């Protein structure tokens, strides 16, 4: 009788597993959108639904079995049901597997930003490196169908026609390395990824490729205006009459006037089309006009201590003004000599005077 009951229990567990699996598949099919989900998201969501449904049912089964075997436990505390032990091990196994990506032969693409251009390799070599599977869904590909696979220029891998719909977009690495804005074919996963980060300022040109400013004159012009706007915006924030001028800064993304060298893909495309420079130039022009006609702003300027000219200097006047890297004072370019800043000399002399023994007495 005990053997028969064990068989019925195994059958019951198998039925529960099948019900959970079909329920998870049904829920996933109802919420699946092939244009928005990658293979990785597909696998993770299916696993999460299956795990949630299975564990909830397993816990209920464990509870009922515990209630039915209470008397047996009281009679013999050392007799632990194997079903509970195996169910607990299964739950732990599911938790471990939930952290795994894909299988031993295939892993779905990661949501990552790629800053390098993939080298041109033969199709057979790339597909062989993929273990003859689609890089998006892991479907095995026979040798005679390799020519039908579609290449993703962003990930540098081949995909089946279900994961690659011949979508086209600009590639960040080609823009940042070669100033190349041509549109290339990408898989559905890459298209969704690039669209999601299109407006995000995550590309620091000075860290990724400093030479890009020499290749792209329009981008270098944006950098020059951007540097001026950084200085003049700090000055305008201290003026109580500059509210209307500061509102003009809202025409562009805030990172363009608060942090140098930082761009989004949208900023780079606008720069290439010639849309960003005129907009930034207009903001700079109105800001300079305010500073020149505002008494409060004029009072916060600098006088060149070398020539004692009446010209009021500001840090944003980069064409005619040099700034001491230590005390931040401004001087004429032709007057300033590095290491001979009058303000720094005065500060050093005052410090020595205050530290002298006679002053301490």
From TrEMBL:
GO terms for cellular component: autophagosome membrane. Residues 150-351 form the Rubicon Homology domain. GO terms for molecular function: phosphatidylinositol-3-phosphate binding; phosphatidylinositol-4-phosphate binding; phosphatidylinositol-5-phosphate binding. One of its GO terms (biological process) is autophagosome maturation. It comes from the Eukaryota. The keyword Disulfide bond does not apply. This is Rubicon like autophagy enhancer. The keyword Zinc does not apply. Pfam families: RH_dom, RUBC_PIKBD. Keywords: Autophagy.
């Amino acid at each position: 009788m005990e053997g028969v009951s064990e068989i019925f229990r195994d059958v019951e567990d198998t039925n529960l597993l099948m019900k959970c699996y079909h329920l998870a598949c049904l829920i996933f099919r109802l919420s699946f959108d092939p244009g928005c989900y990658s293979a990785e998201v597909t696998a993770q969501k299916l696993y999460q639904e299956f795990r949630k449904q299975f564990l909830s049912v397993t816990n209920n089964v464990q509870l009922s079995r515990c209630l039915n075997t209470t008397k047996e436990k009281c009679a013999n505390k050392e007799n632990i049901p194997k079903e509970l032990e195996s169910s607990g091990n299964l739950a732990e196994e599911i938790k471990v597997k939930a952290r795994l990506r894909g299988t031993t032969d295939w892993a779905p693409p990661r949501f990552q930003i790629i800053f390098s251009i993939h080298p041109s390799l033969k199709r057979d070599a790339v597909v062989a490196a993929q273990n003859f599977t689609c890089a998006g869904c892991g479907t095995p590909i026979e040798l005679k169908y390799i020519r039908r696979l579609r290449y993703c220029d962003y990930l540098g891998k081949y995909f089946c026609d279900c994961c690659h719909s011949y979508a086209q977009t600009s590639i960040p690495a080609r823009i940042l390395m070669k100033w190349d804005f041509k549109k290339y074919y990408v898989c559905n996963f890459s298209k969704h990824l690039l669209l999601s980060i299109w407006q995000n300022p995550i590309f620091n040109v000075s860290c990724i490729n400093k030479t890009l400013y020499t290749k792209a004159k329009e981008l270098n012009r944006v950098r020059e205006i951007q540097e001026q706007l950084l200085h003049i915006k700090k000055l305008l924030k201290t003026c109580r009459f500059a509210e209307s001028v500061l509102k003009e800064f809202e025409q562009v993304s805030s990172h363009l006037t608060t942090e140098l060298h930082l761009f989004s893909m949208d900023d780079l495309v606008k720069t290439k089309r010639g849309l960003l420079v005129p907009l930034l130039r207009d903001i700079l022009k109105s800001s300079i006009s305010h500073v020149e006609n505002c008494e409060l702003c004029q009072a916060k300027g600098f006088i060149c201590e070398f020539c004692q000219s009446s010209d009021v200097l500001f840090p944003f006047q980069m064409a005619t003004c040099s700034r001491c890297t230590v005390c931040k004072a401004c001087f004429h370019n032709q007057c300033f000599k590095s290491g001979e800043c009058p303000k720094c000399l005065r500060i050093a002399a005052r410090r020595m005077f205050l530290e002298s023994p006679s002053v301490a007495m």
